[in-house]
């Protein structure tokens, strides 16, 4: 027989630790106040919200735009780049990028509070910032590479103009080209600006590294942080449980 009045949450009878009571959760504190502590379930709810928010804000707009494009609807406006700082972002993904940037901070805060509640070193919360730090370093390296590539192209164009201006050099270059086997050339692409090549190189390096590092951080969160017992005492496992000093029986079960 179950005594519903003794349940922590009648709609979630599997919650056995009163510290995990959903009604007692303060979302603002959990996500934005790094000075407090969060129980196991409160942390899991916050992390799930951040994860699902990122997932839906990326998948839903891209799928909708893809369907509209197949249906013949003009989607150029939705794909038009919008500058968020130095980085151009497609209009449909602006909410996703903004949400990612905000949740980088809220994720750090949530991990900080959870580690503090479980009696672990709060320095470990810095692990969730590693993907962002690596992405920023990769972006800087990619930007430098893109600028170098653009400078090489500019130097090549300048050399070609110099050769074209000198009849002797132009004739020698044409003769050398005629001696080579004919190659099928694609139509020349529109030249990119230095900014376009720099941003393209930066994003090309940053995004894959950020995704891989984020996957590693996610595994650490799910397998370690989200499974730490409340108060740091007890076994590591998923879900809520009764603290050791409250006995092994569920509070709403009777003999």
Verbal overview:
The chain has 7 helices and 2 strands; from the N terminus they run αααββαααα. With 255 residues, the protein is mostly helical. It has one domain (4-177, 192-246). Strands 1-2 form a two-stranded antiparallel sheet. The longest helix is centred in the middle third of the chain and has 36 residues, at 130-165. Residues 1-5 and 247-255 have low confidence and may be disordered. Residues 170-193 are annotated as: Disordered.
Overall pLDDT = 83
Element string (H = helix, E = strand): HHHEEHHHH
**Beta-sheet strand percentage?**
under 5%
Spatial separation of the terminal alpha carbons: 8 Å
- Percent of residues in helices comes to 55-70%
Number of strands: 2
**Structure class:** mainly alpha
* Structural domains: how many: 1
Q: Quick one: biggest sheet?
A: 2 strands, antiparallel
| Neighbour order of strands in the largest sheet | 1-2
* Count of alpha/pi helices: 7
Per the principal axes of the C-alpha atoms, what is the gross shape? Answer: elongated
Which runs of at least 5 residues are low in confidence (pLDDT < 50)? 1-5, 247-255
Rg on CA atoms, Å: 28 Å
Topology diagram in text:
Elements: H1 27-32, H2 40-70, H3 76-79, E1 81-84, E2 87-90, H4 94-117, H5 130-165, H6 167-179, H7 194-223
Antiparallel strand pairs: 1-2
Give a brief rundown of this model.
The protein has 7 helices and 2 strands; from the N terminus they run αααββαααα. It is mainly alpha-helical and 255 residues long. The chain has one domain.
């Amino acid at each position: 027989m179950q005594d519903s009045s003794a349940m922590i949450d009648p709609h979630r009878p599997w919650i056995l630790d009163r510290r995990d009571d959903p009604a007692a959760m303060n979302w603002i504190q959990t996500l934005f106040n790094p000075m407090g502590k969060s129980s196991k379930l409160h942390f899991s709810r916050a992390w799930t919200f951040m994860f699902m928010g990122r997932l839906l804000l990326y998948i839903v707009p891209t799928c909708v735009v893809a369907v509209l494009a197949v249906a013949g609807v003009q989607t150029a406006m939705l794909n038009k780049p919008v500058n968020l700082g130095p980085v151009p972002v497609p209009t449909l993904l602006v909410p996703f990028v903004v949400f990612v940037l905000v949740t980088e901070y809220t994720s750090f805060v949530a991990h900080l509070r959870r580690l503090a509640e479980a009696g672990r070193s709060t320095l470990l919360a810095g692990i969730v910032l590693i993907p962002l730090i690596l992405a920023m370093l990769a972006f800087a390296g990619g930007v430098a590479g893109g600028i170098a590539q653009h400078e090489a192209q500019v130097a090549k164009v300048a050399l070609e103009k110099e050769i074209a201006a000198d009849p002797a050099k132009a004739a020698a270059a044409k003769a050398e080209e005629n001696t080579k086997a004919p190659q099928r050339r694609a139509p020349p692409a529109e030249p990119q600006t230095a900014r376009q090549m720099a941003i393209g190189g930066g994003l090309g390096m940053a995004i894959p590294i950020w995704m891989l590092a984020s996957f590693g951080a996610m595994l650490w969160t799910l397998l370690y942080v989200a499974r730490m017992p409340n108060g740091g005492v007890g076994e590591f496992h998923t879900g809520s449980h009764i603290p050791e000093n409250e006995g092994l029986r569920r509070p709403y079960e009777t003999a």
